[in-house]
Amino acid sequence: MVKWITLKQSDKDRSLGLETGAEYRQRWVSIRVVYFIGFLMFLAFGIVATGIWPYLKSLDPSVSKVFLGYAFAVPPLGQLIFSPFFGWWTNKLTSIRIPLVLLVIIFTIANVLYAVIEEFEDNRKYILLIARGLVGIATSAVTICRAYISSATRLSERTKTISLMSLAQCLGLMVGPIMQSLFSGIGEDGFQVFGLFRVTMYNVAGWICVFLGLFNLILLLPAFFKDSPIAVKEAMKSQGATNAKETWKSIELQYFSITIMVTAFSVLMLVYVAFQTLLSPIALDQFNWTNEESLFYLGILMTAGALISCILFLMLDPLCKRFSETNVLVYGAMLALFVSQLVMIPVGSEPITAFLENSGNSTGNGTALGCPPTQEWCSSIPPIGKVQFTISYTLLCISFSIGTTLSQAVFSKLLGPRPQGTWMALLTCAGSAARILGPGAVTVYVLSGTYWTFGGGSVLTGLVFVWMWVYRNRLQPIVVVKPSTAEEMKVLNPSKLVQ
């Protein structure tokens, strides 16, 4: 831990002969800049999550909730469209600084636009949509960051580094709503700044991101950030190769294993986003809660889930040193994901409507609570229990934390030391598509009920778990070692020896 804080190169690292002490320190300073980029990009989502709806209503009182759905769907759509281009472009460059600087500039401009929307007279809600779309394009930086971590870490460092990157992103999502709450005291009227623009409780989120975006641009200056292709150096030394291209071309791509990892990452994201979208409808329909009770109890549950995720991100590296990365991924993530869906299937004989009638399904002012009559399945399907709900969400958080981190780590190692910009864009696009499709689970829930929603989720996650379990030995990275004078080059796979 002391070495990690002081950036001091250990004797073991120095003995490898891959870099000097100064290069080691610069490499880890640059990786920390990448952590900050990850934090900032996810902060942009978290900080507007609770404030974007009232902000929209203040800009245009006639706006509908359907349009709010568009505001949340546009950022991942922008990421989905532009990530492949930036991933491809990164592979063509000797340094990732230019695309990162460009994306952070787009991020800053997007948040300036978000913060000054009220200065426009017409079409304010569409300007907000443009601002959120630009933020989505800017988050293509996550693809570049993933590719950079793959090239700037040795194999033994990669899992820990990706875990800390995931932790930075999780903290961004956690801190965002807290910052929005802290600045709510500014009020709707806010205050004028130099008579040029107004800062309110709604647009302060944009101004915070603008300030942090400008700070990020400073961190990307050559004094702080440098490209460090240590992964290629490590591979060249192990193979005895003379150039980088020769090194990564000697490692054949394992397309089948790569397909498994992209599928696993997509399913993890899809189920997680779907469940997050369903949290409030389930709480209101199944538990007879008021809106106030739902916000209070779900807030506690989500905070606890975020803390569990943060703890797991810190525990993953020592856990993977004790057990195989693949086993931790298959059992700790995919099995837990399958069980989280299975647990949510309702059990019992009494339908939801009978349960709610026994509990009393109206507030003191006569407002109806519980499952609405338009959802006819409520009269034939038993309710989900609070214990079921809590266990399922806990398992989901465990699965998501372990799965998204290790799937990225294993995916990166399967690719070897080759440029990974385009490949990481594929992983980012898979996650973006899942974030777009995930909210569709609400439609399945409303029309067909919990049996179809979580029964379908159980089948999907169960099939992916079995697939990964059967082929778990093929998810190990290939390591090429330098041939000795006595024997020919051997390609070592942790699960078998290939000659």
Automatic annotation (TrEMBL):
<feature type="transmembrane region" description="Helical">
    <location>
        <begin position="33"/>
        <end position="55"/>
    </location>
</feature>
<keyword id="KW-0813">Transport</keyword>
<feature type="transmembrane region" description="Helical">
    <location>
        <begin position="255"/>
        <end position="275"/>
    </location>
</feature>
<feature type="transmembrane region" description="Helical">
    <location>
        <begin position="67"/>
        <end position="88"/>
    </location>
</feature>
<protein>
    <recommendedName>
        <fullName>Major facilitator superfamily (MFS) profile domain-containing protein</fullName>
    </recommendedName>
</protein>
<dbReference type="Pfam" id="PF07690">
    <property type="entry name" value="MFS_1"/>
</dbReference>
<dbReference type="InterPro" id="IPR051068">
    <property type="entry name" value="MFS_Domain-Containing_Protein"/>
</dbReference>
<feature type="transmembrane region" description="Helical">
    <location>
        <begin position="129"/>
        <end position="149"/>
    </location>
</feature>
<feature type="transmembrane region" description="Helical">
    <location>
        <begin position="100"/>
        <end position="117"/>
    </location>
</feature>
<dbReference type="InterPro" id="IPR020846">
    <property type="entry name" value="MFS_dom"/>
</dbReference>
<feature type="domain" description="Major facilitator superfamily (MFS) profile">
    <location>
        <begin position="30"/>
        <end position="474"/>
    </location>
</feature>
<keyword id="KW-1133">Transmembrane helix</keyword>
<feature type="transmembrane region" description="Helical">
    <location>
        <begin position="204"/>
        <end position="225"/>
    </location>
</feature>
<feature type="transmembrane region" description="Helical">
    <location>
        <begin position="423"/>
        <end position="445"/>
    </location>
</feature>
<dbReference type="InterPro" id="IPR036259">
    <property type="entry name" value="MFS_trans_sf"/>
</dbReference>
<keyword id="KW-0812">Transmembrane</keyword>
<feature type="transmembrane region" description="Helical">
    <location>
        <begin position="161"/>
        <end position="184"/>
    </location>
</feature>
<feature type="transmembrane region" description="Helical">
    <location>
        <begin position="391"/>
        <end position="411"/>
    </location>
</feature>
<feature type="transmembrane region" description="Helical">
    <location>
        <begin position="295"/>
        <end position="316"/>
    </location>
</feature>
<feature type="transmembrane region" description="Helical">
    <location>
        <begin position="328"/>
        <end position="347"/>
    </location>
</feature>
<feature type="transmembrane region" description="Helical">
    <location>
        <begin position="451"/>
        <end position="470"/>
    </location>
</feature>
<dbReference type="InterPro" id="IPR011701">
    <property type="entry name" value="MFS"/>
</dbReference>
<dbReference type="GO" id="GO:0012505">
    <property type="term" value="C:endomembrane system"/>
</dbReference>
<keyword id="KW-0472">Membrane</keyword>
